[in-house]
Write a structure and sequence with these properties.
Layout lengths: L12 E6 L5 E5 L4 E4 L7 E2 L9 E7 L2 E9 L14 E4 L7 E3 L1 H4 L4 E6 L7 E5 L2 E5 L7 E4 L3 E7 L2 E9 L3 E5 L7 E2 L11 E8 L7 E9 L2 E11 L7 E3 L21 E4 L7 E4 L3 E4 L7 E2 H4 L6 E7 L2 E6 L2 E5 L5 E3 L14 E2 L6 E5 L3 E6 L4 E6 L3 E7 L5 E6 L2 E5 L19 E4 L2 E8 L3 E4 L7 E2 L10 E6 L7 E5 L4 E4 L7 E4 L17 E8 L7 E7 L10 E5 L10 E2 L9 E7 L2 E6 L2 E6 L6 E3 L8 E7 L2 E6 L4 E4 L5 E2 L5
Antiparallel strand pairs: 1-2, 2-3, 3-4, 5-6, 6-7, 7-8, 9-10, 10-11, 11-12, 13-14, 14-15, 15-16, 17-18, 18-19, 19-20, 21-22, 22-23, 23-24, 25-26, 26-27, 27-28, 29-30, 30-31, 31-32, 33-34, 34-35, 36-37, 37-38, 38-39, 40-41, 41-42, 42-43, 44-45, 45-46, 46-47, 48-49, 49-50, 50-51, 52-53, 53-54, ...
Length: 653
């Protein structure tokens, strides 16, 4: 199968570019670059085999739009923003690519890429490392501005005139291609304002009209709107516009997302028509005197990241995919087969194999029926872990926005079980007594009533929470393993009544330590042999997700003996990416990594990559069912794997 919500909502789109012939290019947060030559009716992926699918910015060469630059590394200040491995460049409209600037950009995050229309060999890239310039089409780069930059634009008709939104500083302007810079003031916030992300838009029909939106700290609200400003004289004097704080989250008066989504676009023909995107998308047709909330008017998905005009149409990229607002005011979703959903680890399959439930970043929870290949949306929000309990009418347990939800009618109605703190995480159940449920978050909680009531069976240690993995031994459900976010592994031999530490905090991995304070590892997955409850496998990762390449950790404890647990790292030949999950089956061991799935035959520690057809994407979790392994990916939906064979899409939409 591919994407749960393609056709209505998809996944996070960070950047858009429109070629003169109408081809739309979309850069996704972790699903690569996609193209549509049908106005968004159908899409095709362009970068599935590339080393990095996290796209932070796109740009086309104005002199030759077949030349595409895709800056990897999403600079949206989010916990699931993946780092950069360089700038991808294509000279043939995406048929082939070259990775440029790896040494320059590796481990960083990019927000903008700009091509000089008069000198296409001159390219600028901006992000957390400042502003970099290349004079040879991206082959070599040098720094022209050192401070973290969240937006970079060229003034229309003046390719040497650059405007950079610099975090913590304000707007810096260069009139000579970045050789020297001058900070703009004249009514803009100063350094004392604790400035965050800045967005900039220049009116194409009147370059002296410039708009900018500042996020920052205001009235005890982090990432709120400090102000939306306009200048009519090219930047000398600025006026603050009266506008609602469109960075604030609905129902959360002191929560805002200005450092996550802050984008502006001005009509190509009218300098008074502005679109301002944050959590909401607002528009004004009179220079800011009055505003319309397009998010509510069109039921548009929240969290706007990209706004681009082409032929009178505004193209919108947000956490739900790509949308188009036509010149006559009609809104269209363009997500027919844009398969870029970011699926969390907790995919659950019913014991019959007839139902699958998956949780997605900002797109809730969805139900899949393999027999029909159809997805059904169940509940909105940030979906995550799920559990389908056996029975004629299966009970669904789903974590949504960090809270546990329960349904006995396949998602038509939901209740909220009383878990103290109302939080949820990894889930498991006893296959011999299906009503016995385990849910982990700050502690491990047990229910003998199918998830209606819970009692605590662990007590979190100081600094060790939350719980990050649970496994029940298939051959003896009294043996339960629990993994924590500080690397601790515990085991119970009596169903959770008492616990024993079996994994040290200072795992002897043979890998260099991470940059954070020790201990620096968290448990990402646990799998137990179907035959021996004491033969267990544990995957771990550094505790700074997506920030830098990882060192692979797959720890095995052999079958029960006098030296048990006697952990050994069997990662060996795995590449340097996080291992997000591990699954032991009859044919061997499977590892879900930051770049695909790897397999080690039983009794060996030799790894090989599986999955002909699987994009080079982050795999977050592995779920077995009736001879099939379902792979959750963070950027390309859910995929099927025939064990130790190739991956295929079960249903394309």
């Amino acid at each position: 199968m591919n994407d749960p919500y393609a056709g209505n909502e998809s996944g996070r789109v960070t950047s858009l570019a429109i070629a003169p012939g109408g081809t739309i290019y979309a850069g996704s947060a972790s699903g690569g670059v996609w193209a549509s030559s049908s106005g968004g009716k159908t899409w095709r992926p362009l970068t599935d085999r590339q080393p990095d699918l996290a796209i932070g910015a796109l740009a086309l060469d104005p002199a030759n739009p077949k030349v595409i630059y895709a800056a990897t590394g999403e600079n949206d200040d989010c916990g699931d923003c993946f780092y950069s491995m360089g700038v991808l460049k294509s000279a043939n409209a995406g048929r082939s690519w070259t990775l440029l600037g790896r040494k320059t950009f590796f481990g960083h995050y990019l927000s903008s890429i700009v091509v000089d229309p008069q000198n296409p060999s001159r390219v600028y890239a901006a992000g957390d490392l400042g502003v970099m310039r290349s004079n040879d089409g991206g082959a070599h780069w040098h720094k022209v501005l050192r401070d973290p930059t969240t937006d970079l634009v060229l003034a229309p008709g003046r390719p040497q005139a650059l405007l950079a939104g610099v975090e913590g500083v304000g707007i810096e302007r260069s009139l000579n291609g970045g050789r020297t810079w001058q900070r703009l003031s004249g009514g803009l916030p100063g350094r004392h304002a604790l400035i965050g992300r800045i967005a900039i838009a220049v009116a194409p029909s009147d370059p002296s009209t410039i708009y900018t939106a500042y996020a920052g700290l205001r009235s005890r609200c982090q990432d709120c709107l400090l102000g939306l400003y306009v200048t009519r004289d090219g930047g000398a004097n600025w006026t603050k516009l009266k506008v609602p704080d469109y960075f604030r989250e609905p129902g959360k008066p002191i929560a805002a997302q200005g450092d996550y989504d802050n984008v502006l676009a001005v009509s190509p023909t009218n300098p008074n028509v502005l679109f301002a995107g944050g959590v909401k998308l607002l528009s004004t047709r009179n220079g800011g005197a009055t505003w319309t909330n397009l998010t509510s008017s069109y039921s548009l998905h929240t969290d706007q990241h990209a706004l681009v005009f082409a032929s009178g149409t505004l193209y919108i990229g947000n956490d739900g995919g790509v949308y188009a607002l036509g010149p006559r005011g009609h809104m269209h979703d363009l997500n027919t087969n844009l398969s870029i959903s970011q699926i969390y680890q907790g995919v659950s399959v019913s014991t019959s194999g007839k139902l699958l439930v998956a949780g997605m970043q900002d797109n809730g929870t969805a139900l899949y029926r393999p027999a029909t290949g159809q997805w059904t949306a169940l509940i909105d929000g940030d979906g995550n872990y799920n559990l389908i309990l056996p029975g004629k009418n299966p009970t669904l347990l789903s974590e949504v926005d960090g809270q546990l939800q329960r349904s006995t009618d396949l998602g038509a109605d939901w209740s909220s079980p009383k878990v103290p703190g109302n939080d949820a995480g990894p889930m498991a159940f006893d296959r011999l007594a299906p009503g016995d449920v385990l849910v982990g978050a700050g502690n491990l909680w047990s229910s003998t009533s199918g998830g209606t009531r819970f009692v605590r069976i662990t007590r979190v240690r100081r600094g060790s929470g939350p719980l990050s993995a649970i496994a029940v031994a298939p051959s003896n459900p009294e043996v339960v393993y629990a993994g924590w976010s500080d690397g601790l592994v515990e085991m119970s031999q009596n169903g959770g009544r008492t616990w024993r530490d079996i994994g040290p905090l200072d795992w002897q991995t043979g890998c260099p330590p991470g940059p954070g304070a020790q201990p620096d590892l968290y448990v990402t997955g646990i799998s137990v042999s179907p035959e021996d409850p004491y033969r267990a496998f544990v995957s771990l990762a550094y505790s700074y997700p997506q920030s830098l390449p990882d060192c692979p950790f797959v720890m095995e404890t052999p079958a029960s003996n006098t030296s048990w647990p006697a952990w050994v790292n069997i990662a060996n030949t795995l590449p340097n990416y996080a291992v997000n999950d591990v699954l032991f089956g009859s044919s061997g061991l499977y590892a879900a990594t930051g770049r695909g799935i790897y397999y080690s035959p039983a009794g060996t520690a030799r790894w090989s990559k599986l999955g002909r057809g699987l994009p080079n994407v982050e795999v977050t979790g592995l779920t077995p069912s009736h001879g099939i392994i379902y792979a959750a990916t963070y950027g390309r939906g859910v995929w099927e794997l025939q064990p130790a064979r190739s991956v295929r899409a079960a249903a394309r939409r």
